[in-house]
Amino acid sequence: MRYKEPRLLTGGDKSIFVEFGDGIDPELNQRVRRLRLAIEKKKIPGVTETVPAYRSLLVYFEPLAINPRKLREILFSLAESPESEALPESRLIEVPTAYGGEYGPDLAFVAAHNGLSESEVIQLHTGTPYLVYMIGFVPGFPYLGGMSSRIAAPRLETPRAKIPAGAVGIAGGQTGIYPADSPGGWRLIGRTPLKLFDPGREPAALFGAGDYLSFTSITREEFARIKADVERRAYPVKETLMTRGEHENP
Amino acid sequence: MKILEVIQPGPLTTIQDLGRYGYQQYGVPPSGALDNFAFRVGNLLVGNDESAASLEITLFGCRLRTLKATAVAVTGADLGATLNGNPLPTWQAIAVHSGDVISFPRLNSGCRAYLAFTGGLDVPLVMGSAATCVRAGIGGLEGRPLRRGDILHAAAAAPMGRKLGVPREYLPVYGSQLELRVRLGPQDDYFTKEGINTFLHSDYAVSAQSDRMGYRLDGPPIRHKGKADIISDGIPSGAVQVPGDGLPIVLLADRQTTGGYTKIATVISADIAKIAQAMPGNRVRFRQVSEDEAGAALREYERAIGDIRHLLQDTDH
Fold first, then answer.
1. Domain ranges in chain B?
2. Which residues of chain B from 282 to 311 reach within 8 Å of chain A, CB to CB?
3. What are the tens digits of pLDDT across the range B283-317?
């Protein structure tokens, strides 16, 4: 899965991809984050922005400030270096979620599809931390890994025209949260009152690549109370630090 | 201070600057002026920093009333701009008075004009930028296109000193046949040799489904070796994405920050402004260039802007 050595791919005249392997796994994703940290620490002149993804880092640069050949050399040696950066401990962020009913109209389908009861689906969905591999697609959307295959479910054949922000869904073997009202075909099992993206908040995005999140089941009353606090920007998002190695090291 | 009132916004008029950087890691598109050259020159003409917030006016129909005596410059597309009904010279600084009406009634060439004001437009910065991203609902005026009755503010206003213009040799020509220079990659190895040939040697037509996010092109499908899907990764500006149907999409400033389709090539930064001014039906051809050629093209592009900056400064004194 991991390449013998990192591949450097061309992204036009102002960006380079550093790709570590072919697959979705936490070890490759850690390498992406390590490289990102190493680039930040090294403060390479001309590097303007980096975008982490599952198994690659996109490095934007200003070619009039740094020669692309020189930058490739630097990136390659940083990416290969066995003395790579130690990652800080990951945050584990709690995502309170109201399951079923109007908040999760497809919970019954997901349960029946897998021969489980609704409460078993909730138990499986809340019972594990999910790695945020990357953020993308739309502002604040986390690409999550780690869902139990026992609650996998196919997408809707006809997508819904409007899914509300905060909807928690399942598509195939993946789970996700919609950051904003949008159309979509995921099976909806619940909804969180948290705002994944709020441009007026610092930081605007609730999650970053390398965070973990866990879902906790809340009641309708708790949903309403948390939502009111979130609206007033008065809800303290619950986060703890994960002990390194606990979930990341294979 | 109040500088401008929107009489008619036209189909899409937004506040832009040079973009929002550092937030793609959170899924926030960079946005910013699609035609970087016209935008920067507009600001230089009115004595601003290149990045000052200005208007990006798309297609025709926009009408604006000035509320203060100041200097403005219209650059970019030729939308038949008029000042109080008389032709308004473009690519030069123009004095306006309170109550003047600036209109953009026609599509002559290109599709995005820029209107810069002395002092730049004054809006709250979101994540360090004034750029509007309508898709994300952020930046500019409440994250939306301008509406009738909107009042815009400027950080300053200054009546014009001397008339300043850009020499003709520096002005871009927005033609109906475009050649876009590309660097192959990052996923050119997902395509057959025949597919790469199709991409580099066919005429593509700009489709009507083209906007600030990206330009969809019609033409011969580009053949993949196998699948068109990849494990999602970042998307640079100018990336030429080819989904399963084989038709290329050139992704621009409001693009999604990551995606799961193969990217056969990337348009070099010096040529992004060309596609940004293209209209449905225009013909596009891609030409592969080396890293050195791309570097030389960028240096030439920046040299032109540097020359204009110096010319304007010299005229000013």
1. 2-170, 177-296
2. 291, 294-295, 297-299, 302
3. 999 999 999 999 999 999 999 999 999 998 876 54
